[in-house]
Write a structure and sequence with these properties.
UDP-N-acetylmuramoyl-L-alanine:D-glutamate ligase, magnesium ion binding, EC 6.3.2.-, single chain, binds ligand UAG, eleven-stranded mixed sheet, 24 strands, Udp-n-acetylmuramoylalanyl-d-glutamate--2,6- Diaminopimelate Ligase, Chain: A, domain 1, binds adenosine-5'-triphosphate, 489 residues, globular, alpha/beta, tetrahydrofolylpolyglutamate synthase activity, Protein-Tyrosine Phosphatase, Chain A
Length: 489
Amino acid sequence: MYTEELLSVIPLKTVIGQLPNTVKDISIDSRSVQPKSLFICIKGYTVDGHDFAQKAVDAGATVVVADHELQLDGEVAQVIVNDTDRALGLLAAKFFDYPSNDLTMIGVTGTNGKTSVSGIIHHMLVGMGERSALSGTIGFELNGVLYESANTTNDALSTQQMIFRAKMEGCRTMVMEVSSHGLALGRLAGVDYDVAVFTNLTHDHLDFHGTMEEYGNAKGLLFSQLGQDFTKNKYVVLNADDPWSERYAKMTSYPVWTYGLKNDAIFRAENCSYEDGLTTFDMITPEGKFPISMKLLGEFNVYNVLAAAAVFYAKGIAIDVIIELIEDLAPIRGRMERVKTDLPLQIFIDYAHTPDAIEKAINAALPYKKPENKLIFLIGTGGNRDKSKRPAMAEKASRADYVILTTDDPRFEEYDSITGDLAKGMQHENYACIGDRAEAVRHAISVAEPGDIIIFAGKGHEDYQIIGNKKLPHSDAEIAVEAGRIKFV
Ligand SMILES: CC(=O)N[C@H]1[C@@H](OP(=O)(O)OP(=O)(O)OC[C@H]2O[C@@H](n3ccc(=O)[nH]c3=O)[C@H](O)[C@@H]2O)O[C@H](CO)[C@@H](O)[C@@H]1O[C@H](C)C(=O)N[C@@H](C)C(=O)N[C@H](CCC(=O)O)C(=O)O
Ligand SMILES: Nc1ncnc2c1ncn2[C@@H]1O[C@H](COP(=O)(O)OP(=O)(O)OP(=O)(O)O)[C@@H](O)[C@H]1O
């Protein structure tokens, strides 16, 4: 791209040196700079990208965007701006020619349910024969191939790159999980959403946002940033049972579609029942009441499919098609996913790592428990992250007959510090603190008896544990099945 044209989107800048006529790529990481590219220095939480500018030049960068003049050797021009984060959003969107304008962009935000709802919408789109891309905690899925990604919502450059790739591969829609970090840190700058979906807002990430008010306001950016262009067919889907929805409705002028179980809503569910590995309910829609029977477990998944149903109905899809797509859905990876095993136990892998999600996961399992059997619940939480939620997580977990308190990604925190904080919330004495997660999983099997239900929560789809700064292989399901085979020979 012509350098002048690219830089035209930054209004105030000082240029030092001779700009090259064109740049071939843009980058924020010196380790992946291509020759003849533009490197933007980003101040991170751990290191400052300005310190890697020389490395970027050595690797072939011919333009460096920085917030102060740097001493650099080599043939390079410097562009000095006030705020490199803001410049990144503007430049990335321009470089990829605003790809979100060419796709229907669906953003899903909320504390719990982002992965589930975005996965459900994506799979329903694919089920309809539509080309859709998906990005979120599980990675970036494009035409059936899953690529790893660092974050739920990635930095502004990776985000624009992903949307561009989706466009180039012929996708018509991209479904994105939108995290509060992503919104607050401007990672979604330049993404023009068409549909914004809200799941719920409960306690999480207060280490980053400070208060629930700040956390809720960060999520609100998805709705307030939808814009005012009524020639575009944009709309919002809100959970009528969550009080934050009223505030989000006021942040946008686009049509609001609601769903829920308790309060008045356009899409509602009645008569939910959970038996034989199936969830059944009556879906109340603008066209009447329809019975649904689906493989996704638990009341939380009834909310999730109602949100998806509203998205599809507002898009103009017929109710009978929507119902067929919901009934065809397979469980979402690592979200109350039943482990296929011939052990005399029911084992579920789940990603609950907030108090609300733990409550919902237990609610989802209880209908399957016989009075003579136990519900064993294993929860872990991350080290060096929001500590204030830990006692509340264990308080919710106390509804299980036996609780095992462990870690998910301990990072640099001592095991006892994590399990000790969790233990403060326990409401009964039937629990064990075992910081080593593999040992904790084996302990769950050792106390289990035929007919019991075990939920391994907190790792979901993840096949690793982050201990210190090392990512080590870990699978709750594999460890559990191996231990179970030895115990129940
Ligand atoms: C606290 C936080 O958000 N950190 C994010 C941040 O990392 P950072 O600030 O440490 O970046 P850094 O490593 O200091 O690097 C600064 C700059 O120097 C550059 N660099 C660095 C090293 C080098 O050799 N050369 C070089 O050029 C980097 O490319 C970068 O441009 O920027 C990185 C790149 O965008 C992110 O991957 C990283 O997310 C980390 C992994 C993280 O854990 N974030 C969490 C808190 C997060 O964002 N979570 C949300 C919510 C998930 C949920 O809902 O549960 C999410 O969206 O993922
Ligand atoms: N709508 C919902 N309401 C409450 N809890 C939910 C809902 N959907 C899923 N959960 C619970 O939360 C866990 C995480 O679900 P999911 O991964 O879909 O949420 P998320 O918002 O993507 O979370 P994260 O951003 O941490 O990945 C699930 O394993 C389940 O226990």
